[in-house]
Design brief:
Layout (H helix, E strand, L loop, with lengths): L4 E7 L8 E4 L4 E5 L7 H10 L29 E9 L11 E9 L4 E5 L2 E3 L1 H9 L10 E2 L3 H7 L2 H12 L2 H334 L6 H11 L5 E4 H4 L7 H8 L6 E3 L4 H10 L6 E3 L21 E4 L11 H8 L2 E4 L2 H8 L7 E4 L4 E3 L4 E2 L7 H129 L4 H144 L2 E2 L19 E2 L8 H17 L6 H63 L3 E6 L10 E6 L13 H18 L4 E5 L7 H14 L4 E5 L3 H4 L4 E7 L5 E6 L6 H4 L5
């Protein structure tokens, strides 16, 4: 066996107070000693260093119990330390060191630390290192007192752990536990995901409703926006007018404030010159005052330094006195130390004498013992030879008789077993055939289930893809439908706004609204407003509006209704243009229509560019027949020169060039009345087109929804088929596995029964032959035994006269005295060294005190000199202070006169300051008003931008603001409104109330609905993944169970075989076997032990004697070591219950196993010690600390063995 455990070093551990080191041999190391000497603490130390955390196994209750507790003559230790050194030259430990030292230390505060080759590590690192080498989690690595017998007392399922350790399947069990935890986690995650899905489904329905409400809210906002345009247009321009008025007031106040500042500056300039002169005088006085203060400060500093020096002088005197006292004390301690050195020198001499005397006495006692032993050995040899002959004969006779009885019993039992085995062959053969047939059927069923599962999974995957594609198309069509629905709602809102504006006559002048309202009430006959009858292209609206001017909203009335209209206007407010529709006015001949030109910049005559009803064609010709529409100003100037006096040219931007040279230019207020018919017509057309598209999309959505539901139904059905197929497959696999196990079990039983028949037949024949030979030799043994008995009596009388007890006691006594005196001498030498060092330290202290006294004397002299210097400096500073006071007094009188003049200047400056303050206060108020107006305008602009986003504002003079980029279709234009309709506020109020009634809406509902839909799909996929993961984990657990079963079964068979053989060797016959409590469940089955001793019937373990139980337990442990040997095994008094004959067999097996395992054996038995290569003796010293002696076999006494007599 290569050396694994090299040494163990203990210091402060339990009874090992001093540092002790044990060097272990390659085979067996024995440790002997009397009871209570501390032998078992060595086994505890090994277990403790290897990381044991159970204080119960360490025979303690807490960490402090591991530390030497002290005694009357020795103090307790503050720390316990144990170091195990392993030889790793062949690399059996997975670290790159030829030697590996593991150290554990414990402190009284409960703290533990672990070291690997001197480097601090974690307990986990130690456990991982030992686990890789076979030293971790092995119950039979260190067998303490009673632990061997306890292996029999274990329950059957608890005894299983020993076999699992031997089989090395702890890793499989750990992985199985981890897999079970992962399975539990996966199931919890699956439940959580299903809960989330249950929460998501009502949320999806809620978000769908919220998206519909958001669309309705958008339409209501569009209605309010149309009304806000007019309201903001009026208030924007009104706020700018008020701001300009405040600007004018501000300019007046700024002039007044500037004049008051100039007057104040003149007064300040005069006052400033005077103050400079006054400041110079004050500065001179301040300088003198500072100089005087500086001199006073220096004088005070000198006075303080004198006081400090005086105090230091007193402190030095006190220090000198203290040092003198310390010098006297050090001299006394030095004298005392010399006396203690003299005492310890005498103690050393005395201990040396005692040690030499003890060695002489020991040598004499050993010589006497050796002589007596030689005489007694000769007598013992003769007596032993005779007794051995008798014992051999008696043993042979007893063995022969026992053998005859056993052979008779065995033959009878074997015949019965042979009959039972032949019957078992027939039954097991039938069971084997049935099991194999069942296995074939189970295998076919599993293959069919796998094929069905594959087909179902393919079908489910196809259904899943189909459902996902249908859902994606449905989402795409839904988005299109929502976009069209939003567009439809927007167009519907625009149409409603246009109709509402037409109904409320928005955009018309006040007089025009009066006449139109009268027409609606049938109080006036009209054809409506001219702008409502004209159909003008969008690009010509600005030009036609400028050309018509006040005639744009002219009321078309018949000749008889003109007077009624005039009367209405007279009674009401506002003005209006009237266009009579009769033939009594001048004809077109007086104002002939213009003819078109070939100028490329001329678009034509305005009347011909419009679409009007036939009965209004003449009216259009009268109003616009003399107007040319051109592209730009240059074309207008060019063409206007050649036009008749009544004609004019108008550009697309609204600039009017008359033939008489008059030009009308500038921004033309946009009129919604002219564009309203066109906008309504275009909106209605777009609305019809969008409604048609929306209907088609709704139909497509209905069709796609049905397809999605159908696809999801197919997918759900396919998934259900997959789950059913997976369930069938799992059942088939379980059935196949069960059938395989049953077939394997039946095969093993059949083979076992066949082997039993053959073995029993051979055993019966051999037993008959043995019985005949044993009967012949029994008579011969009885005659020889009688002759040998007479010789024993003669030799026993001779040996009784040669007693070793007295001489042996002397040797033992003087051996212990030599060891104790040696320790006492070493301790005395250590104390002498300590006291010599203390005396040297006291001499150094004495020299140091003398040096400090000299330094204190020098410091006193220096302080006296410094005091004289400071007193001279103090007198000099007093003279300088007196001279400076003579200059300060006249200057202070001049300063008092100048300060009176300063007050007059301050009065003048105060008046100018008040005038300036009043002017600036007025200016500030106007500026504040301007700021408020500006903030109001900014606030209004902010409100407009909040409601409309980008807006193109019209700014008046002195008003500026941001101008957005000309983004087509994204910038709103505020209309110029001079007055607000009365009902506008009411309409805005109703619109806002409608929005408030709708309450808070979620504008992101559509996006949230889409996101939650995707999340719902993701969660559905997660459910499938988790179910697949659950199946995979179950498969892993099944595979680990299979590996565990194979490894456990193999180890069990090998250990059972070794156990039978070792049991027969230890008991000299008999039989024993290991059985499984549940052979069909190799993962959790327990293990029972059945034993039959030689010459007895089979009986339970509880009926065995203590020695028989120990021997049976040793057989089990040795069988485990034979099958799965550990690098090191520690046994603590495992042979305590064995008699001499059984100890011999135990020793022989120990030697056999030591070829593969290094043993450390703690024992009281001399026969066990004979197998050891290295022997250590442990005794308890007078100071209650264990002491260790390395021994040879012939040096071991009965006292050291600690055997109790009687």
């Amino acid at each position: 066996m290569p050396l694994r455990l090299k040494s163990l070093e203990l210091h402060g551990y339990k009874t090992f107070a001093s540092r002790m080191e044990f060097q272990f041999g390659e085979g067996i190391t024995a440790i002997v000693g009397p009871n209570g000497s501390g032998k078992s603490n060595i086994a505890d130390a090994l277990r403790w260093t290897l990381g044991e955390q159970s204080y119960g196994l360490l025979r303690g209750k807490k960490t402090e119990d591991m530390i030497f507790a002290g005694s009357e003559s020795r103090p307790k230790a503050g720390m316990a330390s144990a170091t195990i050194t392993f030889d790793n030259s062949d690399g059996w430990l997975p670290v790159d060191f030829s030697e590996v030292a593991l150290t554990r230390r414990a402190y009284r505060d409960g703290h533990n630390e672990y070291l690997l080759n001197g480097q601090q590590v974690r307990l986990r690192d130690i456990n991982e290192l030992l686990a890789a080498s076979g030293l971790s989690e092995r119950t039979y690595t260190i067998l303490g007192q009673g632990l061997v017998d306890a292996s029999l007392a274990l329950k059957a399922d608890e005894r299983r752990r020993l076999f699992e350790e031997a089989a090395g399947i702890g890793l499989y069990r750990t992985r199985r536990d981890e897999a079970l935890k992962r399975l539990e986690t996966t199931q919890r995650n699956l439940e959580r995901v299903l809960d989330i899905l249950a929460e998501l489904e009502p949320r999806l329905r809620s978000l769908e409703r919220q998206a519909k409400r958001a669309n309705e809210f958008t339409r209501a906002q569009a209605d309010l926006k149309v009304l806000l345009l007019d309201w903001y247009g009026y208030h924007w321009h009104h706020a700018q007018d008020e701001l300009n008025a405040v600007h004018d007031t501000l300019r007046v106040e700024e002039v007044r404030a500037r004049e008051s500042r100039e007057a104040h500056a003149r007064v300040q300039a005069e006052f400033g010159g005077f103050r400079e002169r006054l400041s110079g005088l004050r500065a001179q006085l301040n300088a003198w005052h500072r100089e005087a203060a500086d001199l006073h400060s220096k004088k005070e500093t000198v006075s303080r330094e004198l006081a400090v020096l005086e105090e230091r002088r007193r402190a030095l005197a006190a220090s000198q006195q203290s040092l003198l006292s310390e010098q006297e004390r050090a001299a006394g301690e030095e004298t005392l130390a010399q006396e203690r050195i003299f005492e310890i020198e005498q103690e050393v001499v005395r201990q040396q004498g005692e040690h030499e005397e003890a060695k002489l006495q020991l040598s004499a006692a050993q010589s006497a013992l050796q002589a007596r032993q030689e005489e007694r050995a000769a007598a013992e040899r003769r007596l032993n030879e005779a007794r051995a002959q008798i014992a051999a004969l008696q043993s042979q006779r007893a063995e022969t008789q026992a053998r005859l009885d056993e052979l008779k019993t065995r033959i009878e039992a074997q015949n019965q077993k042979l009959d039972a085995a032949r019957a078992a062959i027939q039954s097991t053969e039938s069971a084997l055939k049935n099991a194999e047939a069942q296995l074939r059927e189970s295998r076919l069923a599993r293959e069919r289930a796998e094929a069905e599962l594959t087909e179902a999974e393919q079908k489910a995957e196809s259904g899943k893809r189909k459902a996902e594609n249908a859902a994606a198309e449905l989402r795409q069509q839904t988005q299109k439908r929502d976009a069209r629905a939003a567009e439809h709602a927007k167009l519907q809102a625009q149409l409603e706004v246009l109709e509402q504006a037409e109904a409320s006559l928005t955009g018309y002048a006040e007089g025009t609204r009066l006449l139109l309202d009268a027409a609606r009430q049938s109080r006036l006959s009209t054809r409506g407003a001219l702008s409502a009858a004209l159909d003008v292209p969008a690009e010509l609206e600005t030009a036609i509006t400028a050309a018509l001017g006040d005639s744009l909203d002219a009321i078309l009335v018949s000749g008889a209704s003109v007077e009624d209209a005039l009367e209405l206007l007279e009674r009401g407010e506002g003005r209006a243009a009237l266009f009579p529709l009769d033939d009594g006015r001048p004809g077109l001949a007086e104002n002939p229509a213009l003819s078109t030109t070939n100028d490329p910049d001329c678009l034509g005559v305005a009347a011909s560019l419009l679409r009007v009803p036939d009965d209004l064609r003449i009216a259009a010709q009268l109003l616009l027949g003399n107007t040319l529409v051109v592209k730009n100003r240059s074309a207008a100037r060019r063409l206007a020169a050649g036009l008749p006096a009544h004609a004019r040219a108008v550009t697309l931007s609204g600039e009017v060039f008359r033939a008489d040279g008059l030009i009308l230019a500038g921004k033309t207020p946009r009129s919604g009345t002219l564009s309203r018919p066109r906008q309504r017509r275009e909106t209605q057309t777009s609305l019809a087109s969008v409604a048609e598209t929306l209907s088609a999309l709704e139909a497509a959505l209905t069709r796609l929804s049905a397809q999605v539901e159908s696809a999801r139904g197919e997918q759900a059905q396919a998934e259900a088929e997959v789950r059913a197929a997976r369930t069938r497959l799992e059942a088939a696999r379980a059935a196949e596995q069960k059938s395989a196990l049953e077939a394997e079990s039946a095969r093993r039983q059949f083979e076992f029964a066949q082997g039993q028949v053959a073995g029993l037949t051979e055993e019966i024949a051999a037993a008959e032959s043995d019985r005949e030979r044993a009967a012949g030799s029994r008579s011969e043994m009885e005659a020889n035994a009688a002759a040998a008995q007479e010789s024993v009596r003669e030799f026993a009388s001779e040996l009784a006269a040669l007693s070793l007890d007295e001489v042996q006691e002397q040797v033992t006594y003087w051996t212990a005295r030599v060891a104790v005196s040696k320790g006492a001498l070493a301790e005395a030498l250590n104390r002498r060294n300590e006291r010599t060092g203390a005396a040297e330290r006291l001499g150094g202290q004495k020299s140091e005190v003398a040096n400090r006294l000299e330094e204190a004397a020098r410091a006193v002299v220096g302080l006296d000199a410094e005091k004289e210097s400071l007193r001279a400096r103090e007198s000099e500073l007093a003279v300088q202070i007196e001279g400076l006071n003579a200059q300060v007094d006249p200057a202070e009188k001049d300063l008092e006169s100048a300060e009176q003049q300063e007050k007059a200047y301050q009065l003048q400056e105060g008046e100018a300051q008040r005038a300036m303050t009043n002017a600036e206060r007025s200016l500030g108020q106007v500026q504040l008003e301007l700021t408020r107006r500006q903030e109001a305008l900014v606030s209004l602009r902010q409100r407009v931008e909040d409601d409309f986003g980008l807006v193109q504002f019209d700014y008046r003079e002195n008003v500026s603001g941001p101008v957005p980029l000309p983004l087509e279709g994204m910038v709103e234009q505020l209309p110029v409104v001079t007055s607000l309709p009365l009902e506008l506020e009411e309409q805005m109020t109703r619109a806002r109330q409608q929005l408030r009634r709708m309450g808070a809406v979620n504008p992101e509902a559509a996006q949230e609905y889409e996101a939650e839909s995707q999340r719902y799909g993701f969660m559905k996929a997660q459910v499938e993944d988790l179910r697949n993961a659950e199946a995979d984990i179950r498969q892993v657990i099944a595979e680990l169970d299979d590996l565990t079963q194979r490894a456990f079964h193999k180890t069990f068979e090998e250990v059972a075989s070794e156990f039978r053989n070792i049991f027969v060797k230890l008991f000299g016959g008999g039989s024993a076997r290991l059985t499984l409590t549940d052979p069909d469940n190799l993962v959790e089955t327990g293990i029972e032990i059945e034993a039959k001793l030689p010459g007895r019937r089979e009986q339970g373990l509880g009926l065995l004697s203590g020695g028989e139980r120990s021997l049976t337990a040793i057989a089990l442990v040795f069988a485990l070591l034979k099958v799965s040997p550990t690098p090191v095994c520690v046994m603590d008094e495992v042979d305590a219950m064995l008699d001499e004959a059984n100890v011999g067999r135990f020793r022989d097996l120990l030697r056999e196993l030591s070829r593969d395992t290094q043993f450390v054996v703690i024992t009281h038995n001399r026969n066990t010690v004979q197998a050891a290569d290295v022997i250590y003796g442990v005794t308890m010293g007078r100071d209650s600390a264990s002491q260790v002696i390395s021994l040879k076999l012939d040096e071991i006494t009965e006292e050291m063995m600690g055997r109790s007599r009687g």
